[in-house]
């Protein structure tokens, strides 16, 4: 359990995609997309070589992204009960919850949330930042302002990276990506590009901030109501839920991934932060529920 059974899911916030990609018409935006891809796409620290070596079409051309609007593709996702049963429905419910939260929260800071769609795909799909696939992991693309999540990613997260399969592990991933969308709206994403790697780099600080923003959402998710029913999206979080989220945060720490993929840890190449730091910043957001406590640029050391 995680979602309140009766909340209604709004599938219009999610598009489908994937199945290998249609021939023609789907052209990636070129070099800048590739660069942003390297820095921002590896939300879960997949080796950049996997992205550049992935056969991505990089001819300049028309940017076209996203797939079908979700109402038909995700017709089976109607309620919180569906979100408790089915991974895709859980992504949709989390997208709904996270957006409802930021839409309500940002006006306190004189800002307005810009609705941000998720492309929930299988196989591969095209984004304005390049080809999305499970080699890349979930990411936020600032060029088309959409979140890309491979429906099979959570299985990879469990089986290859050792995360728990609990619902909040998955929900944390979605909330982290929406943290990037918020950073984009606040003009903070560029700081990752200016200083792309190293344990105290801008990239790592941007990533850890997104973890913290995910924690802020988790803090409030049990109180943010669904517009239709007035019920919060999520049931009260248990210690096990939090352990699940921390397990995902730990699994995708740069040191965890480097140890698995290259057999040693090289902090100078970090782009997302250590397993310990990712958990700590998620908890910082979760415990305080306060956006202002997520300013990873205000501290001397984030790791
Ligand atoms: Zn990220």
From TrEMBL:
Keywords on record: Membrane, Transmembrane, Transmembrane helix
Disordered: region residues: 1-22, 252-273
The species this protein was found in: Fodinibacter luteus
Presence of the UniProt keyword Signal in the record: no
Protein name: Neutral zinc metallopeptidase
Transmembrane segments: 20-44
Keyword DNA repair: no
Pfam families: Zn_peptidase (PF04228)
Subcellular location: Membrane
Membrane topology: Single-pass membrane protein
Polar residues: compositionally biased ranges: 1-15, 256-272
Top-level taxonomic group: Bacteria
Lineage, uppermost ranks: Bacteria, Bacillati, Actinomycetota, Actinomycetes, Micrococcales
